[in-house]
Design brief:
Elements: E1 10-13, H1 24-33, E2 38-41, H2 48-64, E3 69-72, H3 75-81, E4 85-88, H4 94-102, E5 107-112, H5 115-124, E6 128-132, H6 148-157, E7 162-165, E8 183-186, H7 188-191, H8 196-211
Helix pairs in contact: 1-2, 1-8, 2-3, 5-6
Amino acid sequence: MNICKEQMLLYAVTDRTWLNGRDFYTQLEQVLKAGVTLLQLREKKLDEAAFVTEAQKVLPICRKYNIPLIINDNPQVALLSGADGVHIGQQDGEVARTRKLLGPGKIIGVSAHSVQEALDAQAAGADYLGCGAVFATSTKTDAGTLSIEELKNICNAVTIPVVAIGGIGENNILKLRETGVDGAAIISAIFADINPTEAAQRLLPLCRQIVQK
């Protein structure tokens, strides 16, 4: 396993939608300083070359704070940019292909929406699971909701870290207590906030509460 559970605590997933004129790289550095423990670079509108360039700009910021950089959904970008890993979906054989491409030392996160998907991903060599959407989300409109009970079942079924994702914010994050998750992956509750730095600072202690065993 290439990632520890402590690194999953406050997992920020980028979204440029809410920049509102702010500098992207300055914003990222500020939220990393505020306590983000893992960063996923999510760029759905960039072509591969531009995505690689973007990742290469973000990587030194992550290195400065010793925070792993995960690439969303593109193993090739992770390879070419030197990022720490990639987060992928449930396509057949994808974990094995990604591991062959990236090698044994890179982080591979996999989305899981059921116990069977979680077990399959773990058996294929995933380092962690992203499970959701646990609450309704505007970021991924096609994401179905994962019940709290099923999230508990997933956490009980696997030994690799599990992070909850989807619609998580200050108003509902504590509903994840006693599920067994190792952290929360958060997008809009950080980046859509008028002050993302303060949002991350408020969310960090809440994340600590949900992982208390």
